[in-house]
Amino acid sequence: MHPKALLDACSELVRLTLKFDHPADAIVSRFFRDNRGLGPRERATLAETVYTVLRKKLLFDHLAPSGSGPKERRLAILGFYGPGDFLRSALTDQEKRWLDQCEAVKPEDLMERHRHNLPEWLVQPLKDQLGAGFWPLVENLNLGAGLDLRVNALKAKRADVQKELQQAGIKAVPTPFSPWGLRIAGKPALNKNEAFLRGDFEVQDEGSQLLAMLVDAKRGEMVVDFCAGAGGKTLALGASMRSTGRLYAFDTSAHRLDALKPRMARSGLSNVHPAAIAHERDDRVKRLTGKLDRVLVDAPCTGLGTLRRNPDLKWRQTMAGVEEMAVKQAAILQSASRMVKSGGRLVYATCSVLPQENEAIAEAFAAANPDFVPLSAGEVLAAQKVEGAPSLCAGGEDGQLYLRLWPHRHGTDGFFAAAWQKK
Ligand SMILES: C[S@@+](CC[C@H](N)C(=O)[O-])C[C@H]1O[C@@H](n2cnc3c(N)ncnc32)[C@H](O)[C@@H]1O
């Protein structure tokens, strides 16, 4: 594609994304579906340009007014993903001079907001938690996320999958904490890979794998994945149960559960029972009162732990939205907890980094439910020989009560999890 045409396409995609009426990944996928002639390189340029604009929106909004032409074009020029001379061949002389000026701006001369590119309401909660770690997080969020795989322990060994990928020209290294994880450099297409089609692995962030380890579902047990969605964690739980026992995958979205079905077929699991529920107090839930060995509540959340891959979320969420979400999270956790049997385990998890969705929910639940005894996430993971388990945790007297993962510290998305045992 000619550089000018590619820049025009980038500008159009930036324009569509900045309406914020749908998630950026959905808008990008739709754009690709509508423009089937785009090659892999052009797609990469388009997607990365849009994601850079979303990541650095405050800075680019600050620089854009000094240029001319449609705003989305100026933003696409600033965020363009690709060689500088390729981009410059699409620009007018005036645009080239403007871009030179923008590139000459030194970070130290910028205001703080133009360096962190975060909405104000999100800055303080992050600074309060991270102190000096705030800026390393900011830098990490700009790098984008890697690609992690979870090897399906039911079907394959990690070393064998690693070798097979290597033979297919894909370099993968074991993840540092999860015994099932492989981390891949770049973003190779995997959906036609033979090992993938055989069900030997799934794409899953190492953080999600660690959540499944915290649940530690065993052979023959009765387990519920309460907010199963497309079943990422369901599949990990099913494999750790070695496809025995009974694993219910509940979700209010039948549409999301539908996406679990082909994954289940590949995985070889025969113990998974997906079921759409109307809400968290559904009759299905009531019928299982006191019957479950393990219940995972992977609660709906703001997703602010996934900003590396979903940078639009910081512009699509608000503090009012967080508060609304917290009410829902508390209600789901309370209702799901009724299914746990005496001696059983309850795990509450989010992919958010905000205490309002995490510690606050866990603390309020613990205070209202003295029959649930908090478990130390650090101890649960150390018992499964997760290396450096305490470094993955925070909270409680010994700093090991909750699983608390951060992109800049652990190379995963941001995750929180709390676990309890029912008396
Ligand atoms: C964080 S996502 C789950 C991701 C999934 N566990 C995975 O690993 O791929 C949260 C899910 O909660 C579901 N949900 C929202 N409200 C719910 C409710 N009241 N009861 C059960 N599920 C709910 C959403 O449809 C969404 O799929």
TrEMBL record:
Enzyme class: transferase
Stretches assigned to the SAM-dependent MTase RsmB/NOP-type domain: 137-423
One Pfam family, short name: Methyltr_RsmB-F
Active site: C351 (nucleophile)
InterPro entries, per the entry: MeTrfase_RsmB-F_NOP2_cat, MeTrfase_RsmB-F_NOP2_dom, RCMT, RsmB-like_ferredoxin, SAM-dependent_MTases_sf
GO molecular function: methyltransferase activity
Designated name of the protein: RsmB/NOP family class I SAM-dependent RNA methyltransferase
Organism: Rhodoferax potami
